[in-house]
Amino acid sequence: MPVVTHQVRVRYAETDQMGIVYYANYLVWFEIGRVELLRALGHAYSALETDGYILPVVEATCRYRAPARYDDEIQIETRPSMLRGSVLKFAYRILRKAVDGAEPQLLAEGETVHVVCDEKLNRKALPDQYAAALRKLMD
Questions:
Q1: Residue 112: which of 84, 80, 64, 74 has the closest Cα?
Q2: Is 42 helix (H, G, I), strand (E, B) or coil?
Q3: What 3-state class would DSSP assign to 72?
Q4: Any catalytic annotation for residue 71?
Q5: Do 57 and 87 form a contact (C-beta atoms < 8 A)?
Q6: What are the extents of the domains in the chain?
Q7: Residues 8, 28: contact at Cβ < 8 Å?
Q8: Per 3-state DSSP, what percentage of the chain is helix, strand, and coil (rounded to 5)?
Q9: Cβ contacts of 8 within 8 Å, gap of 6 or more
Q10: Average pLDDT of each block of 10 consecutive residues along the chain (139 residues)?
Q11: Which CATH class for the 4-138 domain?
Q12: Is 43 exposed, middle or buried (0-12, 13-18, 19+ CB in 10 A)?
């Protein structure tokens, strides 16, 4: 399934005392991946909110494979993996960018599950233009 890739550089503030990226920052990078995926499809997440929709995370998983460190260039790979009614799931892979011809190194992989809601947390169907764009990427 096609993925949308976004690159970031690990900032010092994202690391712990051992110089390793603090585990919760991977979830922040998952969020960056979701936002950039929607942007790549021509739909800004901010516009979705302006239209009265939010995508709260109801479940998140992350499997850590290798540590990321300060100043690493990482790639966030994001793809929609499921859309059923008001439930939406994204899958992620975080990789250290390849250096000197080596393969990128898998650092972490995970998923987030979201329920499409209005501002009062009532379930809603994802607007057609977003759903169609995500389904096209999943096909």
A1: 80
A2: coil
A3: coil
A4: no
A5: no
A6: 4-138
A7: no
A8: 25, 40, 35
A9: 29, 32, 73, 74, 76
A10: 89 94 97 96 93 97 97 97 96 93 94 97 95 92
A11: alpha beta
A12: middle
